Amino acid sequence: MKIVVLGAGGVGGYFGGRLAAAGTDVTFVARGEHLNAIRRGGLRIASPLGDILVSPAQAVESITKTGSADLVLIGVKLWDTEAVAPTLRPLVERGAAILSLQNGVQKDEVFRRHVPPEAVMGGVCYMPAVIEAPGVIRHNGTMQRLVFGEYGGARSSRAEAFLDACSGAGIDGELSGDIEREIWDKFVVLIGISGTTSFFRQPIGPVRESADSRALLLDAMREVVAVGRARGVHLSPEFAEDRLAFCDTLPATMTSSMHEDLKRGHRLELPWLSGSVVEMGAAAGVATPANKRIADALAPFVQGRA
Length: 306
Prior knowledge:
It is a single chain. The protein is α/β, with parallel strands linked by helices. It has two domains: about 1-175, Rossmann fold, CATH 3.40.50.720; about 180-300, Orthogonal Bundle (N-(1-d-carboxylethyl)-l-norvaline Dehydrogenase, domain 2), CATH 1.10.1040. It is about 45% helix and about 15% strand. The protein is built from 13 helices and twelve strands. It has helices at about 10-20, 30-40, 80-85, 90-95, 105-110, 155-170, 180-200, 205-210, 210-230, 240-245, 255-265, 275-285, 290-300, and strands at about 1-5, 25-30, 45, 50-55, 60, 70-75, 95-100, 120-125, 130-135, 135-140, 145-150, 170-175. Strands 5-2-1-6-7-8-11-12 form an eight-stranded mixed β-sheet. Strands 4-3-10-9 form a four-stranded mixed β-sheet. Helix 7 runs parallel beside helix 11 (about 255-265), helix 7 (about 180-200) packs across helix 13 and helix 9 (about 210-230) packs across helix 12 (about 275-285). The longest helix has 22 residues, at about 180-200. The radius of gyration is 19 Å and the shape is globular.
């Protein structure tokens, strides 16, 4: 299987690196010093599951230089989605499938506007990793789970092939018969944790221990469930309460990538997270005051520090 990884950051770099180390034909699309470091010394993954060095690693600066592929893994930030989506069409016309591992629930709607809808698979990942230095991916923890599948629930040869590649690379892969619900399952807890840890500038421990911040965490997740149900997603009415119980099991020091970006003065994915809940809620006639409170408070920081 030939795979192109568009965006070799924490997610794309980690999963692409593991696949490449196991013998899968992987080409990374990266930029800047990260690209230069990969070309010079390969891609390094530092992980509690074992360090990896992919050297030499195939890395290019543009997807136009990748040739053909069976699968394109998308790992760019959400604000880049509109820009990269049109560039995928030539690869799709040569037979590639598209699988986004980005956050959010609207990403695949963007891709389907630029490529045939049947080319787009659904996917979600659970794996904490960041670019620690140019050419180096730091995996924080042992979780490295990928859930993916065809919209509509059918099993396909391309999904089976990717599952086999994940298994060969030691990645916890899973085929889903309802990938849309899986994406929303993650979105519920992602919105709660990313929104409240950023809003309060605290990790999840202090957020869940205070009555007021805990209430905001639950309300933010309840709103996502309500919006998803209004859009026809198969979420149980009590799913937010279930996810709150899950949040109680997380390490007290756990935070979110948006909180980390906020602390570093980086650009935020807020418009595609809490902001998108407000947007989708308005379209569906669902009130979203908790997410609006979060989105409004963080709006001045969306573009990061100059």
